[in-house]
Design goal:
five-stranded mixed β-sheet, 13 strands, Trna Endonuclease, Chain: A, domain 1, alpha+beta, 18% strand, Arc Repressor Mutant, subunit A, elongated, 3 domains, 333 residues, three-stranded antiparallel β-sheet
Amino acid sequence: MRITNKMRKKALASIVKYLSEVGTATRSQIIEGALVHYGLTKSEIEDFSPKSKNSVIRSYIGTALNDLTNKKDVRRTGEVYALIKEELIIIREDECEIKIRDILESGERTKEEIFLALERYFGTNETVSFKDDYNLRSIAGNVLFNLVSNDEITILNGKYSKKTSQDEFYDAPLPENEFKPKFFKSLWLMGGKFFESFVGNLLEKYYTLSGQMVVYCDITGGSDDGGIDIILETVDYLGFGEKIVAQTKCRDRAHVTEKEVREFYGAMNAIGATRGIYVTTTYFHESAEYFLDSVSDLVGIDGEKLFELVKKTNYGIKRCEGGYTFDTAIFTR
């Protein structure tokens, strides 16, 4: 059984946690106590076969205890060991933000990669206590959340990156298979408010091209929208009117759940709409698809259908020799 860095950190944390609880203990007591904190089950602890998890982790905990003693994190007096108290590293939020921005200058990073880089920079990975590690991660998580909320950095497919200029998306035309991912990334970078307006204008153009008159199209999205982002009223050639409502979700990867669709359907019926449209840049969960198929006055538009609708209406894109490019009159508003 190979010891990974994650297992090493877990073994060290188990020793520290046990000594923090008991104060002092002998080597054998520490190994037994740390095994429990490590998370081994009773059957695993009782398995002493040479290649068992118990034997491997037990051996490594002993080695880790030696390392802690040599680093002066643990003091040995006779047969008894105890933690040496140390000052925790204090992290300021402004310093953390500066370092996160610096980390993202060199490219996109996952949250865990950012955390590990911060631990190395501030030195919390060198302290015996894990309190400053947890504190650092809490502060860093808050900084990342605020930077994304303030539209100063972006997160896509679980990776954070510095804010990218939209200009990079509007260069030479690209074939559809290359243009499509850039199209969705651009939608995501523009944000939820833009997406609400984009979908509203897209639907208005679709109904107009279909021979219906759009009496009005109202973008109602917001924290108190009641689950309705867009309201359209249309009249066809014979004079029949429709009140159509839409909900939009501009996501980078998460699916739309059945619960979300049902809640929208409830809001749709509550205001007396005749039809509902749920639009997402990703996809619908299987149970959400089943619910959509079970009702006749509600449809779901996933990322694939959305792109087809964009191509059908030519809204937001331009067809040209070599493929597609963006309509900058729309995407730079």
